[in-house]
C-alpha cells in the first residue's frame, strides 16, 4: 500500500508525459475531518505515496464539523471524507454527513466514518440514509486497512463521477444542440460550437479554432476559417487556414482521412453534414481527453451536423430572397426618376432607425427580433405599387393636377394589395406581409391627414411610420428631376418642423441619434 519512493518512480517512469501532467494536475482529494491532530498526521503519512489510476492523493484537513462543511461547500471535487463522529458535539460527524447529502446536495463524495468510541456506532438507518460507505473504529486504522478503504472509496467515487459526467455532458449536448438550431448565421453557429465544446469538457474555449472546407471531397483545397477563439483569434473569418499554422497538418489530415483526430498537439473533430458539407473543429484541451469525453464529443458532432447544413441552406434561401426583393423594388424604381441606390439606402436607414428605437426601449412590443430582421428589406418594397402608375403621371416633372394626384396616390393601396396577396402564401410575418403594411402606410401622416386611409398616430404600423420618415429624408437629400438636393441641415429642419403632424416624433429622434452616433457616410450618394 504505502509505496516507497523507488516503486513510485518506477511506476512513473513507465508512463508517458501526459500521465505525469495528469497526476500533477488532478490528484484525488481526500478530506480528513477530525478534532485530533494526530489522526491527520497519521492519515497523511499513510497515504503519502499512494496513487490510484495514475493520480496521487491530496489530503485536506478540517478539525470540526463546521469547518468540514465550509470546506466542502467551496471545494466541489473532494472524492472522500474520512469523518470523525464525536467532535464539537457528540454527533457532529453524523450531522455533517447529513448536511453533505441534504444541504450541499453532494451525493458523489464518499463518506467513511471513524470513531474513537467503538460503542457509539450510528444507527443502521443513518448509514443507509446518508450513503455512508464504511464505518471504522480508529483502532482499526492500520495503514493497510486505510489503504483498502481509501482505494475502494475512490473507485466508487470515480464510477459515480463518470456516470454524473456522462449525464451532465449529455444534458449539455441536448441543451446546446437545441440552442444551436436557433442560431441563424454560420459564424454564430461556429462560435456557439466552440463555446459548447468548452462547456461539455468543462474548460474554457481558449485555443479553440473552427475550420470549414466547402469544396467537394477529393478536390484539393485549403480549409477556411469560420470562427476562432483564444490563441487563434488573429485568424479572420473566411480566410484560408495558413499552411504554416501549427494545427494545419492535423486539420488537413482530418479532412483527408475523413475522421476525428486526437493527437498530442491538438484534437480535431471532423463533422460531415448530411448534405456533404464538411467541417472540422480544432482545439487544444488542457489535458488529454478520456474515452468518456471523446464519446460525448462524437455524440455532440452527430447532433449538430444537420445544424450546419440547415444554416448553409438557410443562408442560400435568405440571399435568394433578398436578391428577389431587391429586383422587385428595382423594377418598380426603374421607371421612376430615382437612382438604384435609393432602395438600398432606404433599407439601411430603416434598419438603423429600427435598431435605435429598439435600443432606446421604444415600442418594445413591436421591435421584436423578427421585426428587426425583416423591416429593412421590407421597406424597399414601399413604392412597388408604382408599377401600375402610368408613365405620363409618374414621370411628369410639373405639379400633378388633382386628378393625377388621385391616380398617383393609388400606388400605396396597389402595393399593399399586391404584396398582401403574395404574402398569404408565406406563413407568419414575412418580408412580403411587412412590405404590404409599409406600402399601404408610408404616406399616412401621424396627425391623420395622410392617405390612403387617413390613419392617425399609432394606428399606423411602426414599420410604415419609420419608412415615412426615411422615404422623405432620402428624397430631399438627393437630386430629383424636379428639385436640387437639399443640405442635411435643411432636410432635418424640414422633418423636425413636421414632427407630430406628418411624422412620429420618436422616429425622428431615432433618426437623429442614428446620424449622430453612427455617422453613416452612405446616406448621401456621390453626385447627389
Ligand atoms: Fe410612395
Could you name the key traits of this structure?
52% helix, Beta-Lactamase, 11 strands, 3 domains, single chain, 5-stranded antiparallel β-sheet, binds fe (ii) ion, 528 residues, alpha/beta, Rossmann fold, 6-stranded mixed β-sheet, Hypothetical protein af1432, disordered N terminus, elongated
CATH topology of the largest domain: Hypothetical protein af1432
Query: How can the largest sheet be summarized?
Result: 6 strands, mixed
Structural class: alpha/beta
- CATH class category name of the largest domain: Mainly Alpha
Q: Considering DSSP H and I runs of 4 or more, what fraction of the residues is helical? A: 40-55%
CATH architecture of the largest domain: Orthogonal Bundle
How much β-strand is present in the residues?
Answer: 5-15%
Report the end-to-end length measured between terminal Cα atoms. Answer: 88 Å
Low-confidence stretches: 1-24
Main sheet: which strands, in order across?
A: 2-3-1-4-5-6
Amino acid at each position: 500500500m504505502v509505496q516507497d519512493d523507488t516503486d513510485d518512480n518506477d511506476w512513473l517512469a513507465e508512463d508517458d508525459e501526459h500521465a505525469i501532467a495528469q497526476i500533477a494536475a488532478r490528484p484525488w482529494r481526500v478530506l480528513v475531518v477530525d478534532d485530533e491532530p494526530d489522526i491527520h498526521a497519521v492519515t497523511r503519512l499513510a497515504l503519502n505515496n499512494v496513487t490510484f489510476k495514475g493520480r496521487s492523493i491530496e489530503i485536506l484537513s478540517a478539525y470540526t464539523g463546521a469547518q468540514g462543511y465550509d470546506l466542502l461547500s467551496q471545494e466541489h471535487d473532494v472524492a472522500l471524507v474520512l469523518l470523525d463522529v464525536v467532535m464539537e458535539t457528540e454527533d457532529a460527524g453524523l450531522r455533517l454527513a447529513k448536511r453533505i447529502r441534504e444541504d450541499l446536495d453532494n451525493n458523489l463524495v464518499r463518506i467513511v466514518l471513524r470513531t474513537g468510541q467503538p460503542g457509539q456506532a450510528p444507527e443502521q438507518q443513518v448509514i443507509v440514509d446518508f450513503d455512508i460507505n464504511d464505518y471504522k473504529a480508529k483502532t482499526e486504522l492500520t495503514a493497510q486497512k486505510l489503504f483498502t478503504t481509501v482505494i475502494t472509496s475512490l473507485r466508487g467515487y470515480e464510477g459515480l463521477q463518470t456516470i454524473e459526467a456522462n449525464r451532465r455532458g449529455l444534458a449539455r449536448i441536448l441543451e446546446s444542440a437545441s440552442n444551436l438550431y436557433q442560431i441563424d448565421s454560420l459564424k454564430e453557429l461556429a462560435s456557439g460550437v466552440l463555446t459548447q465544446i468548452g462547456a461539455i469538457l468543462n474548460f474554457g474555449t481558449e485555443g479553440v479554432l473552427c475550420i470549414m472546407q466547402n469544396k467537394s471531397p477529393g478536390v484539393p483545397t485549403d480549409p477556411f476559417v469560420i470562427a476562432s477563439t483564444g490563441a487563434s483569434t488573429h485568424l479572420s473569418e473566411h480566410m484560408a487556414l495558413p499552411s504554416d499554422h501549427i494545427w494545419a497538418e492535423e486539420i488537413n489530415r482530418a479532412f483527408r482521412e475523413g475522421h476525428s483526430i486526437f493527437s498530442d498537439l491538438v484534437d480535431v473533430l471532423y463533422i460531415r453534414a448530411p448534405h456533404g458539407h464538411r467541417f472540422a473543429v480544432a482545439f487544444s484541451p488542457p489535458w488529454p481527453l478520456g474515452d468518456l469525453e471523446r464519446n460525448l464529443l462524437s455524440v455532440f458532432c452527430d447532433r449538430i451536423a444537420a445544424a450546419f447544413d440547415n444554416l448553409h441552406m438557410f443562408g442560400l434561401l435568405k440571399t435568394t430572397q433578398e436578391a428577389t426583393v431587391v429586383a422587385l423594388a428595382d423594377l418598380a424604381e426603374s421607371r421612376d426618376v430615382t437612382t438604384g441606390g435609393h432602395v438600398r439606402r432606404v433599407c439601411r436607414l430603416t434598419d438603423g432607425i429600427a435598431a435605435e428605437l429598439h435600443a432606446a426601449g421604444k415600442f418594445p412590443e413591436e421591435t421584436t427580433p423578427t421585426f428587426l430582421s425583416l423591416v429593412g428589406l421590407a421597406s424597399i418594397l414601399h413604392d412597388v405599387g408604382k408599377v401600375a402608375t402610368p408613365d405620363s403621371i409618374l414621370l411628369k416633372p410639373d405639379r400633378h393636377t388633382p386628378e393625377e394626384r388621385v391616380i398617383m396616390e393609388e400606388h400605396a393601396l396597389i402595393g399593399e394589395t399586391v404584396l398582401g396577396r403574395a404574402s398569404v402564401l408565406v406563413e407568419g410575418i414575412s418580408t412580403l406581409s411587412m412590405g404590404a403594411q409599409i406600402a399601404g402606410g408610408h404616406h399616412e401622416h401621424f396627425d391623420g391627414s395622410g392617405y390612403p386611409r387617413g390613419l392617425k398616430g399609432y394606428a399606423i404600423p411602426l414599420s410604415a411610420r419609420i419608412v415615412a420618415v426615411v422615404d422623405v429624408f432620402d428624397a430631399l437629400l438627393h437630386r430629383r428631376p424636379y428639385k436640387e438636393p437639399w443640405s442635411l441641415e435643411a432636410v432635418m429642419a424640414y422633418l423636425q418642423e413636421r414632427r407630430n403632424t406628418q411624422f412620429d416624433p420618436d422616429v425622428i429622434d431615432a433618426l437623429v441619434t442614428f446620424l449622430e452616433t453612427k455617422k453613416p457616410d452612405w446616406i448621401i450618394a456621390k453626385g447627389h
